[in-house]
């Protein structure tokens, strides 16, 4: 690998020169034309994915991101009808943008906040509509043209039509109470605005830029928008936690949802507008607080967390399940099928990337079957929001795997692509068959293809090593055995899950000769191995294999022994992200299970480890294997080197989204 | 760094003298081969697969290497015996092999056209690569086809390419060339034309274009690689590759000053042939025995090899000995360049040396070998991509990882 890289740096310019000389239509290039040219729109599909820093996991909500974009764009066409002035139009547009994107940032000066506070105090009695008008009036005073007085009212409404229309009929009591607190809100926001800055997405940043450009001209408007969002804030503060005003504008949006369908409802509108951070950073206190308030699942934070992994959620296991069970009848917006799947994730009943993904998709399928569009809503938007709320529920049960994220992205893009004039029943049927197709083609068939490819690499007399219990590898071994190949299997396992024992049992039942070893013995057992077959949770763009913890050490030992490492992974699990270590994104398991040894009562040295400040236990779920240790990746598109993962992602992302 | 001074040019005189000594010798050694050249291309080369499977008394020889030997005019004693034997058996064997193909390739009309014959007639041109010959033969299939629907034509083409591929399974470039042709020709909107005749002519046009491109590939590669040969460099060449020869030829024509180390290339002694060709071009050349590679590697600026096949990992399958040269070059930080036409890109992914379809060839040790002694007759090895620096192909100069990129775009 080294040689490859160094030499390339030396010769790069020459390649370019040479490329010019290359004849225009070599046979292969012409073939590759179409997919290349059509890839850009794909990139457009996921603006948030592109805007993310490479390390973060992009949110599985691209469709909603898109909606956000459209929403903010949709505003201007409404306003010019009512107002002739160009500058005004800009102002109103700007305003909406400010409302959506910039209010939590530091661009709003303290003075403006005070003004906002005044507004909300003075306006609390007339209610929301009047308030909008009033704050608008203040903004209007900055405009030179006459008769603009009314404008801001309208301009405010378009923006809120997407965000807070339903707020209009908020019970007056709520807004009054909220209004009283609004000054506090503002103060609080001043404090918390900085850490929030990181969460702006591409769309928001663009909005921010535009608004900043126009900020000097329409400074008041910014204030008005700030006022609007400030006013919006308390509305949500009430259902969530009246005493402690939320630090974030995001809540302004959630009013709509909470108002519409009760306080427990996890804010589908919320999802639509606010672009959540790529992944919760759990060492960010204010955000964790917020998330907790919204959470359906009550999770208790574990104590004594390992310093390096504080940004990952770690909960005490065993507490959520009974709690969720009691809540079953209160969580009406959650579809029972989704609920069931979530609980099973939580209990650990379903594990393994494919199983989890299929379970989730089937639950969504049922949910879509039972779905009916509420009056005055578009199926496309409402269903997307609904799916998002399901997803956030599932995330609370257990963080999503990358494969699930891809599946969700697929589903959302399907929803977004539905023709607008389709009947509801037709749309539902289309989506359900799409999901079926995804499960069949991308998961079940893909595994079959992988098995067929992989078997060609098993020769008589081979000793194959596998780690854990990857489903694809199991099928490969069984199929090779069916074909009558003579081989031996070494199953390597590790605590605490000991998944390998299940695999071992199934293999031995079929009459395959097996050896069972723990990962501690890997360097000893590797002598006799001729091939290593591994599964993967995901493969990232730089060829890094993101898989069950321990995979990296197996691959490294195999590499050191010059044993080829074959990673079997379906292409729908590929991801365009790049990750260099297993720290920045991972999943923490229950630390208790590594402190206990089942069946050994005498090993109790760590009984009350949680009370010891100096002791932290770390139970990681995944690790990242650098591509240098991987000889080959077997995927449904054939056998490719790890360097070709980005090619597959580029060429087939489109197909994965559209099928 | 490895941009050496052209000090060796000072030694040119001495070299010249050496060459004077060397030349008559080489001439004598090649007089044998040149006289033998017409012989090996005996009119109908028996189907080697057939040959090896039915007659166990003859050591298994890969057809690919037979062809190469014939093309390069390198004749070993074993090979001569082999050819002799083949000619003797000719009448008995020659009939059976074409028969199944004839049945399969022209099932509809029973006309006497055979892909294999066509292929063999093309192959007889010494300058034509096997894959290009196959491509031409397949184009001829389209031309002579009497199919009336597109589907029929496609099936016929498929059958022809399958029979070509099964004719010699050891040749990577033949298989890859057939596959590529099928891809290139059938993967076009031509098949959706309503009018069959226009579709067919379109297909034919494409086929001929592809043949043309493949034929010109060598020239393209030679042009591309000129930038990498600088004055005063020393190039180590292993085996006889027509592409590499073309590259060096063009470099010599461009008045570049360089010298070449040729490995001997046992057992076919392909290095001798190459050194002969280079000496004709007035390029200073030095012959090394295969085991002297590491010894002389510190003088070498770059290693230049051809390839039998380029596999999906970006590694190459090439004549035995390439792997060890690449390893030595890698450990001494010398760049290893591979010149290979894009029709040699194959959808193979060997994990290690033994993970290849075996291709064997006879080895003449000059002395009788006791029957108990085993002889490694494998003709080629696999060089993993991490030991290669760049691939010169007609698609451009590629790093090894791009090969898989191209293959994915082509086949999926």
UniProtKB/TrEMBL annotation, chain A:
Where does this protein have compositionally biased stretches of type Low complexity? 226-243
Instruction: Spell out the Gene3D superfamilies in the cross-references.
Output: Translation initiation factor eif-2b, domain 2 (3.40.50.10470)
Q: Which SUPFAM superfamilies match?
A: NagB/RpiA/CoA transferase-like (SSF100950)
GO CC terms in record: cytosol
Keywords on record = Cytoplasm, Initiation factor, Protein biosynthesis
InterPro entries, per the entry: IF-2B-related, IF_2B-like_C, NagB/RpiA_transferase-like
Query: Which family is this protein grouped under?
Result: Belongs to the eIF-2B alpha/beta/delta subunits family.
Q: What is this protein called?
A: Translation initiation factor eIF2B subunit delta
TrEMBL record, chain B:
Q: Per UniProt, which keywords does this protein have?
A: Cytoplasm, Initiation factor, Protein biosynthesis
**Single GO cellular component annotation?**
cytosol
Region (Disordered) residue ranges read: 90-112
Q: Which domain of life is it from?
A: Eukaryota
Q: Does the keyword Thylakoid apply?
A: no
Provide the protein's localization.
Answer: Cytoplasm, Cytosol
> Does the keyword section mention Cytoplasm?
yes
Instruction: Kindly list any coiled-coil regions of this protein.
Output: none
List GO molecular-function terms, semicolon-separated: guanyl-nucleotide exchange factor activity; translation initiation factor activity
> Which Pfam families does the UniProt record give?
IF-2B
Q: Which InterPro entries match?
A: eIF2B_alpha/beta/delta, elF-2B_alpha_N, IF-2B-related, IF_2B-like_C, NagB/RpiA_transferase-like
Q: Which family does it belong to?
A: Belongs to the eIF-2B alpha/beta/delta subunits family.
| Subunit structure as annotated in this protein's UniProt entry | Component of the translation initiation factor 2B (eIF2B) complex which is a heterodecamer of two sets of five different subunits: alpha, beta, gamma, delta and epsilon. Subunits alpha, beta and delta comprise a regulatory subcomplex and subunits epsilon and gamma comprise a catalytic subcomplex. Within the complex, the hexameric regulatory complex resides at the center, with the two heterodimeric catalytic subcomplexes bound on opposite sides.
Q: What's the protein name?
A: Translation initiation factor eIF2B subunit alpha
